[in-house]
Amino acid sequence: MHSTTVDYAKLKPTAAVNAREAEGYNQTDIAELAALIKAKGLIQPLVVRSGAKGAFEILAGGRRYRAIGMLIKSGDWPADHQVPVVIREETDSEALETSLVENIARKPVHPVQEFSVFARVHSAGADVDQIAKRYGVTTTTVRQRLALGGLAPEIRKAWLEDAIDGDTARAFAVCRDKKAQAAAFKTLSERGKIWPHAVRQHIIQDRPRLSDARVAFVGLERYKAAGGKLVETLFSDDGYLEDPALLDELVEARVDEVCKNLIADGWSFATSDAYVKPKNAHYSWATIRPRPKFTDEAKAQRQVLDDELEKLEKAQRETEADHYDRIDVLEGLIADIDEAAEVRGYSKKQKAESGCVVCVAGDDVKIRYGLIRGKTTAQMAREKDRAKAQAAGDDVVDEPSAGISAALLSDITAMQTRAVA
């Protein structure tokens, strides 16, 4: 066994004597390793044995070999780059054992230690872009690792000792304040509730999420312009708003704005459900239903969504595949198209005869169109029947006044008749 350097072109990977070759390699991992080797050089030499025609078969170091190849292909290193190697003249059986020992004997760095190094590199002056370039990862990955490397000491210790797992640690990273992290860790530890969902709930509490319908209704840019702060969670597509009270103010202002626009569009009235008394009374009001009016674009979009939905529902019935999340999304998109077509279908006359109520309930916002204020469906049906009867010349009996029963009205009528007689 001796050390030397050889031309990269003379190195040959072979599954017969390398434990990893048969399963292949993750290209993202190779790219990250290439960035590290470019930044620091090859720290650990490859282990090889002599092969045919002056070649060297790789016993250990397949990932390093591919990373160097990536650097040569990109032009960062020359094609004749000399690669440090350790030559071991072994049989196939001995060589495969050497490869296996190298892989199973290597103890990976714990995530806590890895992320702490990232945090120290950042503290030493390297910015996020520099770290990303140096280690061959995205800036998002760097921010994630910095957040985890900057967790409160007691949380890092618990993770290192396997008292909590990575998902739970990432849940604590939603909060950037180490004191708040430590306080949450102490409280939840005492309650015996150290798991990801409980951690996120404790930290976020009643703060609105970015996915909250009220945020879309108001507009995130409007919230920011009003001085509102938001927190990116880093480990999901969602985040949360720091100022729930500000969002409430903006929602109220936006509701007023929407109501003015609805009235300008021809509706007889438009109001917030907060002003409807008694509460939720508008759900009993009669509703005018228009004939939906689909644009050509809406029809085409709906057809595409319908086709995909039909395929997924069929697959759901016939296989064990789980398509529930995508099916929910498709059904929501179809419902949005249908609602837009219905609103588009209201005539000027229908708008003049009805109005709208803007409903804000929890994190949901919706507009109810075509409402007849103060009249129930039953009342509307009776008025319609009366109009038909009058048009036909039939006798129409006035309905009893509210609060007077039919029996009492009959008694009053009889008394009046006797008095006249």
* Mean pLDDT across all amino acids: 83
- Along the chain, the helix and strand elements come as EEHEEHEHHHHHHHHHHEEHEEHHHEEHH
**Strand-residue proportion:** 5-15%
Radius of gyration: 36 Å
Q: How many helical stretches?
A: 18
Largest sheet: 5 strands, mixed
Uncertain residue segments: 399-409
- Strand count: 11
**What structural class do the secondary elements suggest?**
alpha/beta
Report the end-to-end length measured between terminal Cα atoms: 133 Å
Q: State the share of residues found in helices, binned by percent.
A: 40-55%
Overall outline:
elongated
Spatial strand sequence of the major β-sheet: 1-5-3-4-2
Features:
four-stranded mixed beta sheet, 11 strands, single chain, alpha/beta, five-stranded mixed beta sheet, 421 residues
In short:
This protein has 421 residues and is of the alpha/beta class.
How would you characterize the overall build of this protein?
- The protein has 421 residues and is α/β, with parallel strands linked by helices.
- Helices cover 53% and strands 14% of the residues.
- It contains 18 helices and eleven strands.
- The protein has helices at residues 27-40, 62-73, 92-105, 111-123, 128-135, 139-149, 153-160, 166-172, 178-191, 196-204, 213-218, 220-225, 244-264, 296-318, 324-344, 348-353, 377-391, 406-420; strands at 2-7, 11-13, 46-50, 56-60, 82-87, 230-232, 239-241, 269-272, 285-287, 355-361, 364-376.
- The strands form three sheets. A five-stranded mixed sheet has the order 1-5-3-4-2.
- Strand 10 and strand 11 form a beta hairpin.
- The longest helix is centred in the last third of the chain and has 23 residues, at 296-318.
- The chain is elongated, with a radius of gyration of 36 Å.
- The protein starts with a strand and ends with a helix.
